[in-house]
Amino acid sequence: MITDREIIDAGAIDADALLELRSGLPSRRLFLFGAAASIGALGVGGCATSDSMSHAEAAKVYGAVPQEKFPIPAVDVSKVDPKYYRRTVRYETKEAPGTIIVDPGNYYVYRVEGDGSATRYGANVGRDGFRWSGNAYVGRKAEWATWTPPKEMIKRQPEAAKYARGMPGGLENPLGARTLYLYQNGAYTLYTIYASSDPESIGSGVTSGCVGLLSQDMIDLYSRTPVKTKVVVLPA
User: Fold this and answer.
1) Does residue 100 or residue 154 have the better pLDDT?
2) For 52-186, where are the E strands, in sequence order?
């Protein structure tokens, strides 16, 4: 089965990624812009935002994380629209505290906190034609996970064959520092919520249905999300 990490046709990738493809040196940026086979369609909320985080505050929140196994550099917050900075917002929902709600139409991920509030994170989401909606749950989670390209991708992009047995975790790995794997009825859906190191991707549809948060945001969400946590993906 094809996963979220496939490389899209050369005519659709950006110039930097195309140069990387021609060089034969696949990178994390290149793999993130992929095409995947759609799975069956998988059905909350509205919010009023709080005051915006200042640039100086954002620089602290999204600063370097040197204590990680692979030290994470600071985010260039000038490349992120301030509306996508992490913040606590009013969010009315009947979902239980701890539930993750993905709003792909607005490029947000919410963690329900209760008392009518939620932690909101800016996200990248599936591009047109590769979005899905419905209920799932976190079936497993991993730090600095190994990424393995599918056979279909290797067939089309032979340079990925070097990772046929798995690409070790690291800053160039498409899954990043943290990964939440989404399941339905005991089966992996092929979709994840993962850590992105590309600030310019936040607020856009660039994946094949997976959802990416900035690494610092993903570490925060991951630390508060146990296995079996409910995930609701809203229609776009």
Assistant:
1) 100
2) 87-92, 100-103, 108-114, 117-122, 125-126, 134-143, 178-184
